[in-house]
């Protein structure tokens, strides 16, 4: 599976979800975010490049993490849209993030790929429900909306990498993170099924 994770707004969890999904799929994460940690399974595309390098376009499975668009698609995002099986738009529950999600949806829907929205990094289910209701009022039932609650799991994976995540069940004192990992895997499995994988 190849998927694109993108949003017009920064700070909505694109890179965190991208890397964790890539670990779940057993593939690499390809990003234009120069602030992500250096891991062997993350490939950073230099900012001056307009397209994804040819050697990366032939991969059967990859997660593209491209963010920070304006009112037009960045050329790398347009290229990833051609390659991907599915688009994921992460959002937080604040009004600016939700509006950026709707704008991102308008830009990427023209590609005709399945789109999933993930409401990310929230604590309060009532606020999640209000954000979900707002999105549903604008989009109807055209787009599945999934949820990933606030967690320190993303920070640990970012710091400690793939091997730590794959062996979390063996890490003493990581019981809660192990439960969180299982909850995330349910979301990632649904994403795979939506992509027809």
From TrEMBL:
InterPro entries: P-loop_NTPase. This is CobQ/CobB/MinD/ParA nucleotide binding domain-containing protein.
